[in-house]
Amino acid sequence: MPLTFSKPDPAAIPLHLIASDQLDDALAALPDTARTWAQTQSFKAGHGELLTVPAPDGTCGLAMVGLGSAQDRARTRFPLAAARRALPDATFDLVSDLPEDALAAEYLGWLLAGYSFSRYRTSPAPKARLLAPQDPALAHRLEVIATGEALTRDLINTPAEDMGPADLADAAKALADQMSAKIEITEGEALLDKNFPMIHTVGRAADRAPRLIDMRWGESGPQLTLVGKGVCFDTGGLNLKPGASMGLMKKDMGGAATVLGLAHMIMALQLPLRLRVLIPAVENAVAGNAFRPGDILTSRKGLTVEINNTDAEGRLVLADALALADEDTPDLVVSMATLTGAARVAVGPDLAPFYTDSDTHAESLSRAAGKTADPVWRMPFHAPYEKMIEPGIADLDNAPSGGFAGSITAALFLRRFVDNAPYMHFDIYGWNPTAAPGRPKGGVGMGARALLDALPDMLDL
Protein backbone atom coordinates (compact mmCIF):
# COMPACT_ATOMS: atom_id res chain seq x y z
CA MET A 1 0.00 0.00 0.00
CA PRO A 2 1.47 3.40 -0.95
CA LEU A 3 2.28 5.49 2.09
CA THR A 4 0.33 8.53 0.95
CA PHE A 5 -2.50 10.75 2.10
CA SER A 6 -6.00 10.65 0.65
CA LYS A 7 -7.14 12.88 -2.15
CA PRO A 8 -9.50 15.73 -1.17
CA ASP A 9 -12.92 14.46 -0.12
CA PRO A 10 -15.76 16.82 0.88
CA ALA A 11 -17.40 13.97 2.77
CA ALA A 12 -14.36 13.43 5.03
CA ILE A 13 -15.23 12.70 8.65
CA PRO A 14 -13.76 14.89 11.42
CA LEU A 15 -11.14 13.03 13.46
CA HIS A 16 -10.37 14.84 16.71
CA LEU A 17 -7.12 14.38 18.63
CA ILE A 18 -7.78 14.91 22.32
CA ALA A 19 -5.33 14.97 25.21
CA SER A 20 -6.56 13.36 28.42
CA ASP A 21 -5.72 16.44 30.50
CA GLN A 22 -7.83 18.58 28.14
CA LEU A 23 -10.74 16.18 27.81
CA ASP A 24 -13.44 18.35 29.40
CA ASP A 25 -12.63 21.39 27.27
CA ALA A 26 -12.40 19.29 24.12
CA LEU A 27 -15.75 17.61 24.73
CA ALA A 28 -17.40 20.94 25.50
CA ALA A 29 -16.46 22.13 22.00
CA LEU A 30 -18.15 19.15 20.32
CA PRO A 31 -21.80 18.86 19.31
CA ASP A 32 -24.11 17.78 22.15
CA THR A 33 -24.70 14.30 20.71
CA ALA A 34 -20.97 13.62 20.35
CA ARG A 35 -20.23 14.86 23.86
CA THR A 36 -23.04 12.74 25.33
CA TRP A 37 -21.87 9.69 23.40
CA ALA A 38 -18.30 10.11 24.62
CA GLN A 39 -19.48 10.40 28.21
CA THR A 40 -21.79 7.42 27.83
CA GLN A 41 -18.93 5.33 26.42
CA SER A 42 -16.56 6.47 29.22
CA PHE A 43 -14.06 7.89 26.74
CA LYS A 44 -10.97 8.97 28.69
CA ALA A 45 -8.71 10.06 25.78
CA GLY A 46 -6.07 7.54 26.76
CA HIS A 47 -3.06 7.10 24.48
CA GLY A 48 -4.38 5.69 21.19
CA GLU A 49 -7.89 5.21 22.57
CA LEU A 50 -10.45 5.36 19.76
CA LEU A 51 -14.10 6.35 19.89
CA THR A 52 -16.33 6.57 16.82
CA VAL A 53 -19.57 8.53 17.10
CA PRO A 54 -22.43 7.25 14.93
CA ALA A 55 -24.29 9.53 12.54
CA PRO A 56 -28.13 9.37 12.40
CA ASP A 57 -27.88 6.86 9.53
CA GLY A 58 -25.64 4.55 11.57
CA THR A 59 -22.40 5.34 9.76
CA CYS A 60 -19.43 7.00 11.45
CA GLY A 61 -20.18 10.68 11.86
CA LEU A 62 -17.17 11.72 13.95
CA ALA A 63 -14.16 10.05 15.54
CA MET A 64 -11.92 10.82 18.49
CA VAL A 65 -8.45 9.52 19.26
CA GLY A 66 -6.87 10.04 22.64
CA LEU A 67 -3.39 11.46 22.95
CA GLY A 68 -3.11 10.41 26.57
CA SER A 69 -1.18 12.54 29.03
CA ALA A 70 2.11 14.31 28.42
CA GLN A 71 3.78 11.43 30.25
CA ASP A 72 2.06 8.92 27.94
CA ARG A 73 3.30 10.78 24.87
CA ALA A 74 6.82 10.86 26.27
CA ARG A 75 6.74 7.10 26.73
CA THR A 76 5.10 6.05 23.45
CA ARG A 77 5.17 7.89 20.14
CA PHE A 78 2.42 8.18 17.53
CA PRO A 79 -0.91 7.81 19.39
CA LEU A 80 -2.86 8.42 16.18
CA ALA A 81 -0.99 5.55 14.53
CA ALA A 82 -2.11 3.28 17.37
CA ALA A 83 -5.74 3.78 16.35
CA ARG A 84 -5.42 3.63 12.56
CA ARG A 85 -6.25 -0.02 11.95
CA ALA A 86 -9.30 0.14 14.21
CA LEU A 87 -10.88 2.98 12.26
CA PRO A 88 -13.64 2.13 9.78
CA ASP A 89 -13.38 2.25 6.00
CA ALA A 90 -13.77 5.98 5.50
CA THR A 91 -11.81 9.16 4.83
CA PHE A 92 -11.00 11.33 7.83
CA ASP A 93 -9.92 14.92 8.33
CA LEU A 94 -7.67 15.59 11.31
CA VAL A 95 -8.83 18.20 13.83
CA SER A 96 -6.27 19.24 16.44
CA ASP A 97 -4.69 22.25 18.13
CA LEU A 98 -1.37 20.48 18.66
CA PRO A 99 1.79 22.51 18.00
CA GLU A 100 3.06 22.31 14.43
CA ASP A 101 5.86 19.80 15.05
CA ALA A 102 3.69 17.52 17.20
CA LEU A 103 0.90 17.56 14.62
CA ALA A 104 3.35 16.76 11.81
CA ALA A 105 4.59 13.80 13.86
CA GLU A 106 1.02 12.46 14.12
CA TYR A 107 0.53 12.77 10.36
CA LEU A 108 3.82 10.92 9.86
CA GLY A 109 2.83 8.25 12.36
CA TRP A 110 -0.38 7.70 10.38
CA LEU A 111 1.61 7.06 7.21
CA LEU A 112 4.09 4.76 8.95
CA ALA A 113 1.19 2.77 10.41
CA GLY A 114 0.26 1.86 6.84
CA TYR A 115 3.51 -0.07 6.34
CA SER A 116 3.63 -3.85 6.20
CA PHE A 117 6.30 -6.19 4.83
CA SER A 118 4.46 -8.09 2.12
CA ARG A 119 7.19 -9.71 0.00
CA TYR A 120 6.41 -13.22 1.23
CA ARG A 121 2.91 -12.86 2.69
CA THR A 122 0.28 -10.24 2.13
CA SER A 123 -1.26 -8.52 5.13
CA PRO A 124 -4.57 -6.67 5.19
CA ALA A 125 -4.02 -2.96 4.66
CA PRO A 126 -5.68 -0.49 7.00
CA LYS A 127 -8.98 0.68 5.54
CA ALA A 128 -9.10 4.21 6.91
CA ARG A 129 -7.73 7.12 4.91
CA LEU A 130 -6.62 10.58 6.02
CA LEU A 131 -6.66 13.90 4.22
CA ALA A 132 -3.29 15.53 3.78
CA PRO A 133 -2.17 18.45 5.93
CA GLN A 134 -3.27 21.80 4.52
CA ASP A 135 0.35 22.74 3.74
CA PRO A 136 1.17 20.91 0.45
CA ALA A 137 4.91 21.15 1.09
CA LEU A 138 4.52 19.45 4.47
CA ALA A 139 2.33 16.73 2.98
CA HIS A 140 4.90 16.04 0.26
CA ARG A 141 7.76 15.98 2.77
CA LEU A 142 5.96 13.53 5.05
CA GLU A 143 5.10 11.20 2.17
CA VAL A 144 8.71 11.26 1.00
CA ILE A 145 9.97 10.49 4.52
CA ALA A 146 7.51 7.62 4.92
CA THR A 147 8.52 6.17 1.55
CA GLY A 148 12.21 6.37 2.47
CA GLU A 149 11.51 4.71 5.79
CA ALA A 150 9.56 1.95 4.01
CA LEU A 151 12.56 1.33 1.74
CA THR A 152 14.80 0.95 4.78
CA ARG A 153 12.36 -1.42 6.47
CA ASP A 154 11.91 -3.56 3.34
CA LEU A 155 15.66 -3.95 2.85
CA ILE A 156 16.28 -4.95 6.47
CA ASN A 157 13.31 -7.31 6.63
CA THR A 158 14.37 -9.24 3.52
CA PRO A 159 16.30 -12.39 4.51
CA ALA A 160 19.89 -12.82 3.38
CA GLU A 161 18.95 -15.45 0.78
CA ASP A 162 17.28 -12.63 -1.16
CA MET A 163 19.38 -9.71 0.11
CA GLY A 164 23.00 -10.57 -0.55
CA PRO A 165 25.63 -8.12 -1.80
CA ALA A 166 24.32 -8.28 -5.38
CA ASP A 167 20.74 -7.72 -4.26
CA LEU A 168 21.76 -4.75 -2.13
CA ALA A 169 23.62 -3.34 -5.13
CA ASP A 170 20.50 -3.86 -7.26
CA ALA A 171 18.42 -1.94 -4.71
CA ALA A 172 20.92 0.93 -4.86
CA LYS A 173 20.84 0.83 -8.68
CA ALA A 174 17.04 0.99 -8.66
CA LEU A 175 17.15 4.04 -6.40
CA ALA A 176 19.82 5.66 -8.57
CA ASP A 177 17.73 5.06 -11.70
CA GLN A 178 14.63 6.48 -10.02
CA MET A 179 16.46 9.63 -8.93
CA SER A 180 18.76 10.06 -11.96
CA ALA A 181 21.84 9.50 -9.83
CA LYS A 182 25.15 8.06 -11.01
CA ILE A 183 26.28 4.74 -9.60
CA GLU A 184 29.41 2.61 -9.83
CA ILE A 185 29.80 -0.91 -8.44
CA THR A 186 33.23 -2.42 -7.76
CA GLU A 187 33.00 -6.20 -7.38
CA GLY A 188 35.13 -9.15 -6.35
CA GLU A 189 38.81 -9.10 -7.31
CA ALA A 190 38.42 -5.60 -8.72
CA LEU A 191 38.28 -4.42 -5.08
CA LEU A 192 41.96 -5.34 -4.79
CA ASP A 193 42.79 -3.62 -8.06
CA LYS A 194 41.13 -0.42 -6.80
CA ASN A 195 42.68 -0.65 -3.32
CA PHE A 196 39.82 -1.73 -1.09
CA PRO A 197 41.71 -4.58 0.60
CA MET A 198 39.70 -4.90 3.81
CA ILE A 199 36.35 -4.98 2.02
CA HIS A 200 37.71 -7.78 -0.16
CA THR A 201 39.21 -9.68 2.77
CA VAL A 202 36.04 -9.67 4.85
CA GLY A 203 33.87 -10.76 1.93
CA ARG A 204 36.15 -13.19 0.10
CA ALA A 205 34.99 -16.36 1.89
CA ALA A 206 31.39 -16.01 0.73
CA ASP A 207 30.01 -17.52 -2.47
CA ARG A 208 28.53 -14.12 -3.30
CA ALA A 209 31.31 -11.66 -4.10
CA PRO A 210 31.82 -8.50 -2.03
CA ARG A 211 31.12 -5.11 -3.57
CA LEU A 212 31.57 -1.41 -3.02
CA ILE A 213 28.56 0.66 -4.06
CA ASP A 214 29.32 4.29 -4.95
CA MET A 215 26.36 6.55 -5.81
CA ARG A 216 26.49 10.27 -6.56
CA TRP A 217 23.71 12.83 -7.01
CA GLY A 218 23.57 16.61 -7.30
CA GLU A 219 25.71 19.12 -9.13
CA SER A 220 26.08 21.99 -6.66
CA GLY A 221 26.09 22.85 -2.99
CA PRO A 222 27.97 21.36 -0.06
CA GLN A 223 28.91 17.69 -0.29
CA LEU A 224 27.43 15.15 2.11
CA THR A 225 28.83 11.63 2.06
CA LEU A 226 26.82 8.84 3.68
CA VAL A 227 28.59 5.56 4.43
CA GLY A 228 26.47 2.54 5.37
CA LYS A 229 27.57 -0.84 6.67
CA GLY A 230 26.28 -3.46 4.24
CA VAL A 231 27.10 -6.78 5.90
CA CYS A 232 24.26 -8.76 4.35
CA PHE A 233 24.78 -11.66 6.74
CA ASP A 234 27.24 -12.05 9.56
CA THR A 235 28.14 -15.53 10.76
CA GLY A 236 30.94 -14.01 12.83
CA GLY A 237 33.48 -15.62 10.53
CA LEU A 238 35.91 -18.04 12.15
CA ASN A 239 34.95 -16.51 15.51
CA LEU A 240 31.56 -18.06 14.82
CA LYS A 241 28.53 -16.55 16.51
CA PRO A 242 26.31 -18.85 18.60
CA GLY A 243 23.01 -19.63 16.95
CA ALA A 244 21.02 -17.29 19.15
CA SER A 245 23.21 -14.37 18.10
CA MET A 246 23.11 -15.28 14.42
CA GLY A 247 19.33 -15.33 14.10
CA LEU A 248 18.93 -11.61 13.41
CA MET A 249 22.01 -11.14 11.28
CA LYS A 250 20.00 -10.42 8.15
CA LYS A 251 19.73 -6.97 9.73
CA ASP A 252 23.50 -6.42 9.79
CA MET A 253 23.10 -4.37 6.62
CA GLY A 254 20.82 -1.99 8.52
CA GLY A 255 23.29 0.86 8.16
CA ALA A 256 23.24 0.48 4.38
CA ALA A 257 19.45 0.25 4.39
CA THR A 258 19.19 3.39 6.50
CA VAL A 259 21.50 5.48 4.31
CA LEU A 260 19.60 4.36 1.21
CA GLY A 261 16.31 5.38 2.82
CA LEU A 262 17.85 8.71 3.82
CA ALA A 263 19.30 9.15 0.33
CA HIS A 264 15.80 8.66 -1.09
CA MET A 265 14.52 11.42 1.19
CA ILE A 266 17.32 13.83 0.27
CA MET A 267 16.98 13.30 -3.47
CA ALA A 268 13.18 13.26 -3.58
CA LEU A 269 13.09 16.52 -1.61
CA GLN A 270 15.71 18.01 -3.94
CA LEU A 271 17.93 19.27 -1.13
CA PRO A 272 20.51 21.74 -2.51
CA LEU A 273 23.58 19.61 -1.92
CA ARG A 274 25.87 17.07 -3.54
CA LEU A 275 25.25 13.60 -2.18
CA ARG A 276 27.56 10.62 -2.22
CA VAL A 277 26.54 7.22 -0.83
CA LEU A 278 29.18 4.55 -0.18
CA ILE A 279 28.17 1.03 0.85
CA PRO A 280 30.61 -1.84 1.34
CA ALA A 281 28.37 -4.86 0.69
CA VAL A 282 29.71 -8.21 1.95
CA GLU A 283 28.86 -11.46 3.67
CA ASN A 284 31.06 -12.47 6.58
CA ALA A 285 31.17 -16.21 5.89
CA VAL A 286 33.13 -19.28 7.00
CA ALA A 287 35.36 -21.05 4.48
CA GLY A 288 38.95 -22.13 4.00
CA ASN A 289 39.90 -18.70 2.69
CA ALA A 290 38.23 -16.74 5.49
CA PHE A 291 40.39 -14.21 7.28
CA ARG A 292 41.70 -15.39 10.64
CA PRO A 293 42.19 -14.15 14.19
CA GLY A 294 45.74 -12.86 14.41
CA ASP A 295 45.92 -11.74 10.79
CA ILE A 296 47.17 -8.23 10.14
CA LEU A 297 45.40 -6.39 7.34
CA THR A 298 46.52 -3.25 5.55
CA SER A 299 43.72 -0.79 4.90
CA ARG A 300 43.15 1.52 1.96
CA LYS A 301 44.56 4.35 4.07
CA GLY A 302 47.71 2.36 4.82
CA LEU A 303 46.96 1.81 8.49
CA THR A 304 47.51 -1.79 9.59
CA VAL A 305 44.86 -3.62 11.61
CA GLU A 306 45.37 -6.64 13.86
CA ILE A 307 42.39 -9.00 13.75
CA ASN A 308 41.58 -10.13 17.26
CA ASN A 309 38.01 -11.12 16.43
CA THR A 310 36.62 -11.86 12.96
CA ASP A 311 33.18 -10.94 14.30
CA ALA A 312 34.26 -7.27 14.45
CA GLU A 313 34.18 -7.09 10.67
CA GLY A 314 31.87 -4.12 10.17
CA ARG A 315 34.47 -1.56 11.15
CA LEU A 316 36.92 -3.13 8.68
CA VAL A 317 34.73 -2.69 5.62
CA LEU A 318 33.63 0.74 6.78
CA ALA A 319 37.24 1.79 7.21
CA ASP A 320 38.05 1.36 3.52
CA ALA A 321 34.84 3.16 2.52
CA LEU A 322 35.52 6.01 4.96
CA ALA A 323 39.06 6.38 3.62
CA LEU A 324 37.62 6.75 0.12
CA ALA A 325 35.04 9.26 1.37
CA ASP A 326 37.78 11.29 3.05
CA GLU A 327 39.82 11.55 -0.14
CA ASP A 328 36.98 13.62 -1.63
CA THR A 329 37.20 16.25 1.18
CA PRO A 330 33.43 16.48 1.65
CA ASP A 331 31.71 18.97 3.93
CA LEU A 332 30.33 16.20 6.16
CA VAL A 333 30.82 12.45 6.40
CA VAL A 334 28.20 10.37 8.20
CA SER A 335 28.48 6.63 8.80
CA MET A 336 25.59 4.43 9.91
CA ALA A 337 26.12 0.89 11.07
CA THR A 338 24.66 -1.89 13.18
CA LEU A 339 28.09 -2.01 14.71
CA THR A 340 28.20 -3.09 18.36
CA GLY A 341 26.20 -4.95 20.95
CA ALA A 342 27.73 -2.55 23.44
CA ALA A 343 25.55 0.25 22.07
CA ARG A 344 22.44 -1.81 22.72
CA VAL A 345 23.52 -2.55 26.28
CA ALA A 346 24.15 1.16 26.79
CA VAL A 347 20.96 2.64 25.33
CA GLY A 348 18.66 -0.23 24.30
CA PRO A 349 16.98 -0.78 20.94
CA ASP A 350 15.06 2.50 20.62
CA LEU A 351 17.81 5.12 20.83
CA ALA A 352 20.31 5.82 18.07
CA PRO A 353 23.67 6.67 19.66
CA PHE A 354 25.77 9.07 17.63
CA TYR A 355 29.30 10.43 17.84
CA THR A 356 30.61 13.80 16.69
CA ASP A 357 33.34 16.22 17.67
CA SER A 358 31.09 19.16 16.79
CA ASP A 359 28.95 20.54 19.60
CA THR A 360 27.04 22.57 17.01
CA HIS A 361 26.20 19.49 14.96
CA ALA A 362 25.22 17.59 18.09
CA GLU A 363 22.87 20.36 19.20
CA SER A 364 21.27 20.60 15.76
CA LEU A 365 20.73 16.84 15.64
CA SER A 366 19.29 16.65 19.15
CA ARG A 367 16.81 19.45 18.41
CA ALA A 368 15.79 17.75 15.17
CA ALA A 369 15.31 14.42 16.94
CA GLY A 370 12.71 15.96 19.24
CA LYS A 371 10.85 17.52 16.31
CA THR A 372 10.79 14.34 14.22
CA ALA A 373 10.04 11.72 16.91
CA ASP A 374 13.35 10.05 16.01
CA PRO A 375 15.29 9.79 19.29
CA VAL A 376 19.09 9.96 19.34
CA TRP A 377 21.70 10.16 22.09
CA ARG A 378 25.17 11.67 21.91
CA MET A 379 28.11 9.49 22.89
CA PRO A 380 31.71 10.67 23.33
CA PHE A 381 34.76 10.26 21.17
CA HIS A 382 36.67 9.76 24.43
CA ALA A 383 40.34 10.36 23.60
CA PRO A 384 41.80 8.52 26.63
CA TYR A 385 40.39 5.29 25.16
CA GLU A 386 42.48 5.65 21.99
CA LYS A 387 45.20 3.49 23.53
CA MET A 388 42.66 0.64 23.78
CA ILE A 389 42.61 0.32 19.99
CA GLU A 390 46.41 0.34 19.62
CA PRO A 391 47.69 -3.24 19.95
CA GLY A 392 51.39 -2.54 19.46
CA ILE A 393 51.95 -5.12 16.72
CA ALA A 394 49.88 -3.07 14.27
CA ASP A 395 48.48 0.45 14.07
CA LEU A 396 44.99 -0.60 15.17
CA ASP A 397 43.15 -3.43 16.95
CA ASN A 398 39.77 -4.38 15.54
CA ALA A 399 38.50 -5.92 18.81
CA PRO A 400 40.12 -4.64 22.02
CA SER A 401 40.11 -7.18 24.84
CA GLY A 402 38.22 -6.61 28.06
CA GLY A 403 34.85 -5.66 26.65
CA PHE A 404 34.80 -2.15 28.10
CA ALA A 405 33.48 0.82 26.07
CA GLY A 406 32.87 -1.31 22.99
CA SER A 407 30.79 1.25 21.11
CA ILE A 408 33.23 4.07 21.89
CA THR A 409 36.31 2.14 20.83
CA ALA A 410 34.58 1.13 17.57
CA ALA A 411 33.75 4.79 16.89
CA LEU A 412 37.33 5.81 17.67
CA PHE A 413 38.56 3.14 15.26
CA LEU A 414 36.39 4.54 12.47
CA ARG A 415 37.42 8.13 13.18
CA ARG A 416 41.03 7.20 12.39
CA PHE A 417 40.02 6.95 8.72
CA VAL A 418 38.52 10.46 8.37
CA ASP A 419 40.99 13.37 8.45
CA ASN A 420 39.67 15.88 5.94
CA ALA A 421 36.03 16.39 6.89
CA PRO A 422 33.72 16.73 9.90
CA TYR A 423 32.65 13.21 10.87
CA MET A 424 29.53 11.82 12.53
CA HIS A 425 28.92 8.15 13.30
CA PHE A 426 25.68 6.36 14.25
CA ASP A 427 25.81 2.96 16.01
CA ILE A 428 22.22 1.87 15.32
CA TYR A 429 20.23 -1.30 15.99
CA GLY A 430 18.00 -1.22 12.91
CA TRP A 431 15.37 -3.48 14.44
CA ASN A 432 12.20 -2.98 16.45
CA PRO A 433 11.92 -6.02 18.75
CA THR A 434 8.35 -5.28 19.89
CA ALA A 435 5.51 -3.84 17.83
CA ALA A 436 4.66 -0.23 18.66
CA PRO A 437 2.42 2.41 17.04
CA GLY A 438 3.74 3.16 13.56
CA ARG A 439 6.62 0.76 14.15
CA PRO A 440 5.80 -2.93 13.58
CA LYS A 441 8.18 -5.59 14.77
CA GLY A 442 11.08 -5.86 12.35
CA GLY A 443 13.43 -3.61 10.46
CA VAL A 444 13.31 0.09 11.25
CA GLY A 445 15.20 3.23 10.33
CA MET A 446 16.99 5.05 13.14
CA GLY A 447 18.43 8.55 13.05
CA ALA A 448 17.56 9.25 9.40
CA ARG A 449 14.61 11.57 10.04
CA ALA A 450 16.54 13.52 12.65
CA LEU A 451 19.55 13.85 10.37
CA LEU A 452 17.38 14.95 7.44
CA ASP A 453 15.87 17.70 9.57
CA ALA A 454 19.27 18.80 10.92
CA LEU A 455 21.11 18.94 7.58
CA PRO A 456 20.14 22.53 6.76
CA ASP A 457 21.80 23.68 9.98
CA MET A 458 24.81 21.41 9.63
CA LEU A 459 25.53 22.33 6.00
CA ASP A 460 24.14 25.89 5.87
CA LEU A 461 21.63 24.93 3.21
Automatic annotation (TrEMBL):
The keyword Manganese applies. GO terms for cellular component: cytoplasm. InterPro entries: Leucine_aapep/pepB, Macro_dom-like, Peptidase_M17_C, Peptidase_M17_N_1. Pfam families: Peptidase_M17, Peptidase_M17_N_1. Belongs to the peptidase M17 family. The keyword Hydrolase applies. GO terms for molecular function: manganese ion binding; metalloaminopeptidase activity. This is Leucyl aminopeptidase family protein. One of its GO terms (biological process) is proteolysis. Residues 309-316 form the Cytosol aminopeptidase domain. PROSITE patterns: CYTOSOL_AP. It comes from the Bacteria. Keywords: Aminopeptidase, Hydrolase, Manganese, Protease. It comes from Aliishimia ponticola.
